[in-house]
Amino acid sequence: EPGLDLVHLVSTRFALFAAPTNRAESVCERWRASLIEHYGGNPDPQQYLPQCEPDGEFSPVQCYGESTYCWCVDQEGREIDGTRSHDAVKPTFNPSCLF
User: Which one of 23, 37, 41, 43 is separated from 15 by 20 to 30 angstroms, measured CA to CA?
Assistant: First the structure.
């Protein structure tokens, strides 16, 4: 995207994440980076890492690694009660996850 400078890239087996220089690192991005460091830089595919949107906000659907064990979160990353799912397909969108 034009005008976006990348200050850092964090690469894992299942995610590539970049933060633009024109804003501070978000809570989601800081939590994600902290967990990647905690996991020794190489999280297991089943370990939880917060999923962040390009603008740094929490993605509404969160999942344990590559599993289909997923749930919805609010804008602060807190789980929304009653939204946990073990569906056979990892959701990309869940209407229950709308803020």
Answer: 23
Q: Is the pTM of this model over 0.70?
A: no
Domain 1-99 is of which CATH architecture?
A: Irregular (4.10)
Residue 6: HSE in the Cβ half-sphere, 13 Å Cα cutoff: 8
Whole-angstrom distance, CA of residue 33 vs CA of residue 11: 10
Q: What sign has the CA pseudo-torsion 3, 6, 24, 76?
A: positive
Spatial separation of the C-alpha atoms in residues 1 and 59, rounded to whole Å? 20
Rounded distance between C-alpha atoms, residue 65 and residue 45, angstroms: 5
In whole angstroms, what is the distance from residue 60 CA to residue 77 CA? 8
Q: Tokens 């990348």: give the residue.
A: 6
pLDDT tens digits along 48-75: 999 999 999 999 999 988 888 899 999 9
